[in-house]
Amino acid sequence: MSNITKRFDESVVLVVHCVDTEGPIGGDVRRNPDGTKEFFDNWQDIKDSLLEITNDKFRNNYQDSYNLPYKLNWFIMDFTGFSTNPKNRIQKYHDTYDNIKSLSTCSDSFHWHYHQPSTSGVGDQWSDDWYSSNEHYNILGKRIIERNDFPEAFRAGGTIEDEKCSQWLEDHIMIDFSNRVSYRSEPTNDIFDFSWFNAPMDWVPYNPKQGSFTSKGDMKRLIARSVDLRSRLHELQYEEVLGAFNQAKTTNTPVILSYFSHDHRDMRDETIYAIELLNKAAAETGVPFKWSCAKDAVKHCLGLETIENKIEITVTDNTAKITFRHRMFQKNPFVYTSNSHGNVQYHKLQVKIHPACPNYYQSCILKIPDDAIKIGVACTDMSGDKCVKVMELLQ
């Protein structure tokens, strides 16, 4: 994956609108200058605002250069793993996922947004150490087993990453849209002010460097740039948009222009603002643009061919043999069991490679816990495409 060389000879801007989807936020939070609420504190208000940009009329009124309707990328956060809740968030697995799925979002893409809980357990404190919690395994296991789904792209909470997080992603998640670098980025030693200063500012995903993930290197995972659409830290500027279109034009290759919003802020005006900038740049440069899924944009930009993986689970007594038709991106597949109480257990299994086997390429063996009622397995292949398999066990 580190030798990114295959590119389409095509000038196009692939637009990825990311939404950090966190649900209602209340309590003692920031206020607007006029004293009004900065955030929606209930799902009804969030849904009322989102209905205007997810309905068919809006999507079709704002088609791309290929007459395709507007597309959103929902990076879902589960507010779990905390002992306190000062901002009155909903502490329930799948709450954001199910609420956004209830809207007209079947044409959108669903990914993963994650804030690592602090060792303090305080609900509005994020950790500066990736290993302070294993809650990410619980969230992904629930997504696999209870929703038969798995995220193909990731965005770090607060765009906070450290080297431990980078290495975990290297072993587990291929596509990362956390690079926030912009003209407003500044050097800092405070990870909570992390703005990806000195990270690549062009609009093509890069392989990070081992030990310095804000630099280009030979790791296999991919980092794409996504800037604040409109926040107190940054507002998308026409010069930034025009730069992406000119990069596509001068290189005659696809580029990814990505910006991000939050569901608990009113996204309506800023979304139309971004569309106006895109239409202006397309008219000025003659370069088309296309609304895109985060994963599909990376595949298109880098010329990655789809590989249709296949997972099989064969159970004999208390043992399951799990096979994968093609090579997976993960060092270890995501393998889980769940019991009748809804508890999920992650199993870190070693993988064997079978290059000469005609039926599968990789395999692993699971010793099934006595109380298990389901097995869930997920992976992504080397093109970023997911494969999920959930099996109910006979009792």
Summarize the amount of helix as a percent range: 10-25%
> How far is it from the N-terminal to the C-terminal residue, by CA?
42 Å
Rg over CA atoms, rounded to whole Å, is 21 Å
The biggest beta sheet reads: 7 strands, parallel
Overall pLDDT: 94
Structural class: alpha/beta
User: How many strand units?
Assistant: 19
Give the gist of this structure:
The protein has helices at residues 43-54, 56-61, 95-101, 135-147, 163-172, 238-251, 268-285, 294-302; strands at residues 12-21, 73-76, 109-114, 154-156, 175-179, 208-209, 212-216, 222-225, 227-228, 254-262, 289-291, 311-316, 319-324, 334-338, 344-347, 352-353, 362-367, 374-380, 386-392. The protein has 395 residues and is an alpha/beta fold.
Molecular structure report:
The chain is of the alpha/beta class. The chain is built from 8 helices and 19 strands. A hairpin with a 2-residue loop joins strand 12 (311-316) and strand 13. The longest helix has 18 residues, at 268-285. Residues 1-6 have low confidence and may be disordered.
What key phrases describe this protein's structure?
7-stranded parallel beta sheet, 8 helices, 4-stranded antiparallel beta sheet, alpha/beta, 395 residues, 19 strands, disordered N terminus, 23% helix, 24% strand
Topology:
Elements: E1 12-21, H1 43-54, H2 56-61, E2 73-76, H3 95-101, E3 109-114, H4 135-147, E4 154-156, H5 163-172, E5 175-179, E6 208-209, E7 212-216, E8 222-225, E9 227-228, H6 238-251, E10 254-262, H7 268-285, E11 289-291, H8 294-302, E12 311-316, E13 319-324, E14 334-338, E15 344-347, E16 352-353, E17 362-367, E18 374-380, E19 386-392
Parallel strand pairs: 1-2, 1-10, 1-11, 2-3, 3-4, 5-8, 9-10
Antiparallel strand pairs: 6-7, 12-13, 13-17, 14-15, 14-18, 16-17, 18-19
